[in-house]
Structure formats: structure tokens, C-alpha cells
Write a structure and sequence with these properties.
The protein is mainly alpha-helical. It contains 41 helices and 13 strands.
Length: 951
């Protein structure tokens, strides 16, 4: 990351080193721009900051020379780091376009502001303050002269002193006063008359048993104040002095750690930064940028601001404009940026679901799956809660209509929402006060400027007639101009006139389809670029039009095209060079909607039905076989899917462990859902229900209940078209499991009983056992405990007959839990001990953890608190190993109850505190009940041993 450093010598730095910012005057110019990063600074202001009220003759010329050299340094560093760092000229001055978080003084101030949030716990506050103070590398603006530089230094020094005092106070509350003595002493040497520094140092010295040094510190401060200011120490410093003398200032022994205060709002966890890479060579759009800039005015209304850029058509540059502006102003939004492509006009019909977008935003905030409620309405409410009191920039790209946007709007002021759409979202303006902005095609001058920026400017200037025809043929569409420029840049020796002639000939062939709409004219550019591709790249481009999107990995592209993975990179690189394809993430590629629609059109006209069908088959085989492989790494699957062998030339991916499997599912999840629906449309019904089953473990772990139900509902329809009882049973059982998880046992029972009937007809012992396991849980939910126990026993027998040890063990644990619910604790323990013996080396870590939990529950109710604690500790360790923080927190809560019942308040407090920390990290509602338990029981005898109800 490029950093502009002002809190020390003025520097431009990256991980690779620092740049020479030049002589002092140039460093002053750079600093004068950096303190107003993102805002225009006029030449007169720069002159004043460098030379003061009496600038020398030629000062304006000197500033321009310094600006030129600074621009070169910014361009070089921006290109090397891949991050935006530009110095641009505007009518009202020069603008250093950089994220303010890359300027150390703004980063310092942002961290201090975050630390002063009353909701932040002291451990986090100390970390924020420490990080802020660590940005200081010496004297601010070191080596720069002048009144402006001195004024800035004085202001920043005051902020540093205040931050250091705050940091010392926090460290004292955390029981670490010794760590503050060195920094406080050093800063007091620099600022010997600042009383709060002396007070903080005296408190730290006293807290570490160094009263003599604390009293000496006071005496020195008193002498300096008298000699230099003719005054006595203030009230606060005198009171600390007197308290130390009387011995009634809290001493070196820290009090017991208090119960953490309740959170009054959402935690400030992850700071999302989701903006796509800004397009280089952005040109024009001055009026549009000015209107967007106006939205940042301090007097803007309190409602979320929404902007719809809709005029014209696809390819007009709405996304480019939005992303460019978002990068330019992201420093105004210190809490981060969110971005989603809603795919409102996806040529394959895979329009983005608002629920999918909300879930993606919750993931960006690092909300744990266990904390995410089911249903769009509840998830949108949680999303709005997370946005409350934050300043964030939210870009909703390629929206179809206002209804797709509304669930994604914040509910309180502070955020700015930028929407792009091909439709004019007037209802959003009427109901939500959106500001509408129309984006038209580029003017001929702007089009020529874009070409000049992407090609050599001399080359463009040398052939004005050819450039004029190219601009005309591209109809002012940035997308078409970018594709053409990519082709021209790839072969700099071809005259632009030759390219114009080729484009004219291509256009003549397509004139019959040109109705005057720029989107039909742009097909000529696509066609011309496509004609220049090598045969392999041309075929891959056509087949990408069959892919459902929203993006594709290199390995999936290899399977789609039926080529070796080693060869696919070269083909993808050729398409990327021609701007027909974008590598928006490392190894992941996407196409603009218009480019993909044209690819699909070519596939339908140039490739046979058989060829297209086989390519789609390869693609679906790739996703199905990879998903089934990844599924097995997440634990023994409930659905034993035996797919047909993959077609030749399919190269599925092979994750090697649980982490890689989860990463693959996370990256491919939108693609897998789109592929499932495409398979249903194209008649690949076997792939449909098997892919739904392969997704189940991921949906369960990520709490994607609605996706779980939707996938198997589609699978159920496919199973019925196939007239496959096995597929239908699988779908019914999964829908039933999901309904049960959502707390809808009546709906779940309908599906599960249908699945049980089908498995019985098929003689499928494993499938029937899984269904009985689920019916046992549903029966318990409906308080039919004896019936639940019977279902769990039937599950055990079924898994035993099927030879499935891992699931037999889990079913035995369920039997044990049912016995415990009936008060039969010895029976519960016997069942769980059998389960642990069976689990052995099956790899069912989650099942083992739940079994230890059940054992702890049973031992606790028998008053065997030592045994219960051992079991809970084993369960907590296993849940920790697999990253299941919700159950880890739950186990620690019950471990604390056990210690409390055993009259061991210290251990109870420790376990409850661990649990509370985890629940608060999850922002889980159970934290409130646990906090109340801590506050009620600390220091009291246990009133009883009853645990709260278990889920």
C-alpha cells in the first residue's frame, strides 16, 4: 500500500521502500496537497503554505515545476503498487487523489476517533491508540520551514499528547501501567509543561510501586511551572499528589476484572473495502463528477443519498464512473466501502437476489454464520443495524429496478448509496429521495481523449481522420472504445487507418441489424475484435457465453472448453488482452453483460446444438465432481451421491483439506446456484438434485437456510421430472431438515415423513436412518420426547445395518440426549460412551464434540461436577479446533454453570467470562443472559444446579 507520511520526514512509501520526495520546497508542496487529500488546493494557497505572506518572484512558476515532478512520482508509485495515487488539475486547483487512510495523519486521527467510541472495549481501545501513536516517526514535517508547517506541527503535537494520555489511562485500567512509563517520560521531556502527561506518569509510577519517583515527578513539574509560567500545578495534579502522600490512591494491586459493560450497539469488527479496481485512463465526465461531488456537501439531507446513473444503455460507462468516483472519495467514508453487482440485466437471466447481496454484505462485516437470522427481512434488519452510526460508501451496481435495491438501503444517515442501472429509477427518487443522474455517451472529444490516454498520444494525433472514424464507429461507448484500444495497443505498428478500414468493413456486414441504437453499433466492435482471435481463444469466448456467471475460474473454464488447464491460461490471457474478458480477481474472470450476450449469440450461430450441449455437460460435471470432493472434506456427508463419471476433458478441482474446501465453496457459491438453475432449464435434472445435495454441508455450516431450501426445492422438481424416488427422497429429507432448523417442525414433519416412505420403498437403510434421526429432533421440538427417543433408536439400527460407524455414533449421541431430556442420565452416559468408541478415527469431529457435550450435561445433572467439567472442556477444545465458535461459547457457559454448582466461583467466573467474550464477538443475543448470570452470581453461593434449557 502506498503511504504518504507527514508525521516525521515527508515521504512516499510502499512495502518496497520510500521515494525521494525532493528538496524541502517540493516536500512542502507535497505536504500541502496531502493535508487536503481528495480536495482541490489552489495555486495561491500552495504559495502561501510554502513561502508565507511574502512569496518571492517566480513562486508560481516554481510551484508548477514542483507539481510536475510530484505528479511523476505519484504515477510511478501508483502503478507499482496497483493502487490509485494521482495528482490531477481541476479548475479550482490541484487534487491529490488518494484514500485518506493512506495519509498517516488522517490514519492517526481516524484511529483516535475510533478509540473514543464509548462502545469499544478497553483492549481494543488500547490497540487502536497504540497503532495510532506508532505512526509517529519523529518531528512532524521534519526539515520544513515556514509558519504553515509550524502551525500544523503544533496542532498535531497537541493531538499526540492527548492520545498518549488516553492510551496510558486505558493501559492502567487493563492492569499494564508499567508499559506506559517509558513513553510518558520521553514525551514529558519534549513537553515539560503539560500537566496531564505528568499526572498520567505519576499514576503509572504509583501503580507499579514507585512512589518516590512519582513524588519527584510532581516536584519537578511544580518547579518548572513556577519558574517558567509563574503558576502552581492545577487541581487534578495536586489531588494525585495528595492522594499518593495519604496512601489513598489505588495502589499497585489491580482490582478484580469487572464484568464487561453491555454493548450499546454493533461491534466495529471488519472494515469492508470491496470496491473493484478502478479503470485506468478514465476521461471526461466532468459534469457528472461535479454533481456526484455535490452529494458530499455538509448540508446534505439526513436520508441516505442514492444516485442512479441510467441514461443511455449498457456499455455507456455507468460502472466505470461509479467506481472511479467511489475510489476518489472513499476517504470521506472511514468505516469502509461495500460493493455488489446485482446483475440486473444478466443475459443468462441470473438476476441477483437481494437476499444474496445482503448475505454477502453480512459476510463482509465478518458476522458469524450462527449470528445470521433466517429470511431476507431479518437479515436486512441486521444489515441496517450494522450500518447504524457508520459512515460507509455502498455501491449497488447494475440494478434492475427499485425493488431490487430497497432491501440494501441503510436505515439511518451517515452512509451514501450509489446505484447504477439501465433503467431510470424514478420511484426510488420519489420514495427515498434519490438524486437521479443521467449518463450519456462520450462526446467525440472525450472519446478521442480516451483513445489518446490508452494509446500513444502521438499515434492518435498523427491520424486524425482514422481516429474520427473509429470514434464514430464506436458510437461514444467507452466499452467499445476500450475493446478497440486494447486491440490497437497489442500491435502498435499497425496504422490506425488500417484498423478503421477493418472496422468499417465489419460494420457494413452488420448494418442490417443496426437500428441506430449504440448497443447494436457496438456489436461491430465486438465482431471485429472477435475476428482477430486465434481459433482456440475464439472457441473459448463463444463457450463463455454459455456459462451462467457471474464469474468463472481458470479450471472451470478449462473444463468448459475441454482443454488442458496448462493451456487455458494462454487463451484467457488473449481474451483479457483484447478486453473481451476481465480478470477481476486473481484467477477469476468475468464478462460485461453485452460482451457475454454477444458470445452467447455467436455460440448459437457458429456451434452445433451437440457441441453446446456437450460443453454445458462438461461445465456441470466440473462443478458437481468438485463439489462432491469438497463436501467429503467437511465431514461424513449425509447424502451418499454416486455421480456418473465425468466426461473426458473435465478436470475437477481437488481441495486438500477442510479450509480449502470451504474456500472453494465460498468463492463458487453464486456460480453453483446459477449453474443449478441453468441445469434445470437445460434438462440436466440429475445434475440438479445431486448438486443441491453436494451443497448441503456448506449451506448448513454457513447458516444459509433459505439457499438450502431453495436448492432442494429445485432438486425436488427435477427428481419428479426424472421419476426418481431416490432423488425425491433426498430432496424431501433436506427440505425437512432445513425447516426443522428454522424452527418449523410441523412443516418439517410433512417432508420427513414423505422421505421415510420413499426410503422404505427403496430399501435404503442409510437414507431411512438419516430420516429417523431428523424425525427424532422434530419430535423433541414438539415435546414428543418418547417418540423422539424411538426415532433416534431406529436411526442407530439403520446406520448399524448400513455399516456407517460415524453416523451410528452420532445417532447414539442423539439417543443419549433423548434419555437425558427424559431424566434418564445413566442411560444417557452409557449411550454416549458407546458413541465415543464408535467414532474412533472416522473423522467426525463435530459428532465427537456434541457427544462430549451430552456427557457433560448428564454428569452435571447427576451432581458429578468434576466429570461434567472434564467433558465440557473436551467438547470446547474440539469445537475450537473446527472453528465452531457458537458451540464453543455455549459449552463454556455450561462449564461455568457446572463450576458454580460445585462452589468453585473462580473457575465459574473464568468460564463464563470466556463464554461472554465469544458471544459478544459473535454479537449473539445469548450474551445478555450470560451477562445477567455473571452479575447475579458473582460472590454469591450457588442457589441451585439447574441449567437453562438446551437447544
Amino acid at each position: 500500500m502506498v503511504q504518504l507520511r507527514l508525521l516525521g520526514p515527508v515521504e512516499l512509501a510502499t512495502t518496497g521502500g520510500t521515494a525521494d520526495a525532493g528538496p524541502p520546497q517540493r516536500r512542502t508542496v507535497l505536504a500541502a496537497l496531502a493535508v487536503d487529500a481528495g480536495r482541490p488546493v489552489g495555486t495561491d494557497v500552495l504559495i502561501s503554505r510554502v513561502w508565507g505572506a511574502n512569496p518571492p518572484e517566480g513562486a508560481r512558476r516554481s510551484v508548477h515545476a514542483h507539481i510536475t515532478r510530484i505528479r511523476h512520482v505519484c504515477d510511478r508509485f501508483g502503478d507499482a503498487s496497483g493502487e490509485g495515487l494521482r495528482l490531477t488539475r481541476r479548475s479550482d486547483g490541484y487534487v491529490l487523489e488518494v484514500d485518506r487512510q493512506q495519509v498517516d495523519v488522517y490514519r492517526f486521527q481516524h484511529l483516535i476517533g475510533s478509540a473514543r467510541d464509548a462502545r469499544v472495549p478497553d483492549t481494543e481501545r488500547a490497540s487502536l491508540l497504540g497503532e495510532a501513536l506508532g505512526l509517529w516517526r519523529g518531528e512532524p514535517l521534519s526539515g520544513l520551514d515556514g509558519s504553515w508547517a509550524e502551525q500544523m506541527r503544533q496542532a498535531w503535537r497537541r493531538e499526540r499528547v492527548d492520545a498518549t494520555v488516553e492510551w496510558a489511562r486505558v493501559q492502567a485500567r487493563l492492569g499494564a501501567p508499567a508499559a506506559t512509563i517509558g513513553p510518558l517520560s520521553a514525551l514529558l521531556d519534549d513537553f515539560p509543561l503539560v500537566e496531564p502527561l505528568a499526572e498520567a506518569l505519576m499514576r503509572a509510577l504509583h501503580a507499579t510501586g514507585r512512589d518516590a519517583e512519582a513524588l519527584l515527578c510532581y516536584a519537578s513539574m511544580q518547579r518548572r511551572l513556577t519558574e517558567e509560567l509563574g503558576t502552581d500545578p492545577g487541581v487534578a495534579l495536586r489531588e494525585v499528589h495528595q492522594a499518593i502522600l495519604r496512601g489513598n490512591l489505588p495502589g499497585p494491586t489491580m482490582p478484580p476484572r469487572p464484568v464487561p459493560p453491555p454493548r450499546t450497539g454493533p461491534q466495529r469488527g471488519a472494515m469492508p473495502a470491496q470496491l473493484p479496481v478502478a479503470v485506468r485512463g478514465f476521461t471526461g465526465r466532468h459534469e457528472e463528477l461535479a454533481r456526484l461531488d455535490a452529494l458530499l456537501a455538509p448540508a446534505r439531507p439526513p436520508a441516505p443519498v442514492v444516485i442512479s446513473a441510467v441514461s443511455g444503455t449498457g456499455g455507456v460507462g455507468k460502472t466505470t464512473l461509479a467506481v472511479h468516483w467511489a475510489h476518489r472519495v472513499r476517504g470521506y467514508f472511514p468505516d469502509g466501502q461495500l460493493y455488489v453487482n446485482l446483475r440486473g440485466f444478466d443475459p443468462g437471466g441470473s438476476v441477483g437476489d437481494p437476499a444474496e447481496a445482503v448475505r454477502g454484505f453480512l459476510d463482509a462485516f465478518a458476522v458469524p454464520p450462527a449470528r445470521i437470522p433466517p429470511g431476507l427481512e431479518a437479515q436486512a434488519a441486521l444489515y441496517r443495524s450494522l450500518l447504524a452510526d457508520r459512515q460507509m460508501l455502498i455501491v449497488l451496481d447494475n440494478a434492475r429496478d427499485a425493488d431490487q435495491v430497497r432491501p440494501l438501503l441503510p436505515g439511518s444517515p451517515g452512509c451514501l448509496v450509489l446505484v447504477t442501472s439501465r433503467n431510470r429509477l424514478t420511484s426510488l427518487a420519489a420514495a427515498e429521495g434519490a438524486h437521479l443522474l443521467a449518463v450519456d455517451v462520450l462526446s467525440p472529444e472525450e472519446s478521442e481523449s480516451l483513445l489518446a490516454d490508452r494509446l500513444d498520444s502521438d499515434r492518435v494525433a498523427a491520424e486524425p481522420a482514422a481516429v474520427a472514424e473509429i470514434v464514430s464507429r464506436c458510437a461514444g461507448l467507452p466499452l467499445a472504445l476500450a475493446v478497440l484500444a486494447a486491440r490497437a495497443a497489442a500491435d502498435p505498428h499497425i496504422p490506425l487507418a488500417t484498423l478503421a478500414d477493418e472496422l468499417r468493413e465489419t460494420g457494413s456486414r452488420l448494418d442490417a441489424l443496426d437500428g441506430g441504437d449504440p448497443t447494436t453499433q457496438v456489436r461491430a466492435v465486438f465482431s471485429w475484435s472477435y475476428d482477430a482471435l486465434n481459433p482456440g481463444a475464439a472457441q473459448l469466448y463463444r463457450l463463455l457465453g454459455l456459462h451462467p456467471g457471474p464469474d468463472i475460474s481458470a479450471r472451470a473454464a478449462a473444463s468448459l472448453a475441454g482443454v488442458a488447464p496448462a493451456r487455458i491460461r494462454a487463451l484467457l490471457a488473449e481474451l483479457t488482452r483484447t478486453h473481451l474478458l476481465t480478470e477481476h480477481l486473481p484467477g477469476r474472470y468475468s464478462l460485461h453483460d453485452l460482451v457475454r450476450a454477444y458470445a452467447g449469440e455467436l455460440a448459437r450461430t457458429e456451434d452445433s446444438d451437440t457441441h453446446r450441449h456437450r460443453a454445458t455437460h462438461r461445465m456441470l460435471d466440473h462443478y458437481l465432481h468438485t463439489a462432491l470432493h469438497a463436501q467429503c472434506l467437511l465431514g461424513p456427508p449425509a447424502d451418499r451421491i454416486l455421480p456418473s463419471p465425468a466426461l473426458p476433458q473435465v478436470t475437477p478441482e481437488e481441495p486438500t483439506d477442510r479450509g480449502e474446501a470451504m474456500a472453494w465453496f465460498t468463492a463458487e457459491h453464486p456460480v453453483l446456484l446459477a449453474a443449478l438453475h441453468q441445469a434445470a432449464q437445460d434438462g440436466f435434472d440429475t445434475h440438479v438434485w445431486q448438486l443441491a445435495a453436494a451443497l448441503t454441508p456448506y449451506h448448513q455450516r454457513q447458516v444459509l437456510w433459505s439457499d438450502w431450501i431453495a436448492a432442494h426445492t429445485t432438486g425436488l422438481a427435477a427428481a419428479r421430472r426424472l421419476a426418481s424416488p431416490a432423488a425425491e427422497a433426498c430432496a424431501h429429507r433436506n427440505i425437512g431438515n432445513a425447516e426443522s432448523t428454522l424452527g418449523r417442525p410441523a412443516e418439517a414433519r410433512v417432508h420427513l415423513e414423505r422421505a421415510a416412505d420413499l426410503y422404505e420403498q427403496l430399501g435404503d437403510q442409510s437414507g431411512a436412518a438419516h430420516t429417523h434421526l431428523a424425525l427424532g429432533i422434530v419430535s423433541t421440538q414438539q415435546s414428543r420426547l418418547t417418540e423422539g427417543l424411538e426415532h433416534s433408536r431406529q436411526a442407530v439400527n439403520g446406520f448399524r445395518a448400513a455399516g456407517d460407524r460415524a453416523w451410528q455414533a452420532l445417532a447414539l449421541n442423539n439417543v443419549g440426549w433423548d434419555h437425558a431430556e427424559l431424566g434418564e442420565y445413566r442411560h444417557a452416559i452409557a449411550c454416549c460412551e458407546q458413541a465415543l468408541t464408535l467414532i474412533g478415527d472416522t473423522g467426525h469431529v463435530s459428532g465427537e464434540a456434541h457427544t462430549w457435550d451430552t456427557l457433560g450435561y448428564a454428569h452435571h445433572h447427576l451432581g458429578e461436577h468434576s466429570e461434567a467439567a472434564d467433558c465440557y472442556e473436551r467438547a470446547a477444545a474440539l469445537f475450537h479446533d473446527i472453528g465452531d465458535r457458537y458451540y464453543e461459547a455455549d459449552i463454556f457457559a455450561h462449564l461455568g454453570d457446572t463450576h458454580h454448582a460445585a462452589r468453585n466461583p473462580v473457575a465459574a467466573r473464568e468460564a463464563w467470562t470466556l463464554s461472554l467474550a465469544l458471544f459478544e464477538e459473535l454479537d449473539h443475543p445469548d450474551a445478555a443472559a450470560l451477562r445477567a448470570r455473571l452479575q447475579h452470581h458473582l460472590g454469591q453461593d450457588p442457589p441451585g444446579t439447574a441449567l437453562p434449557p438446551r437447544g
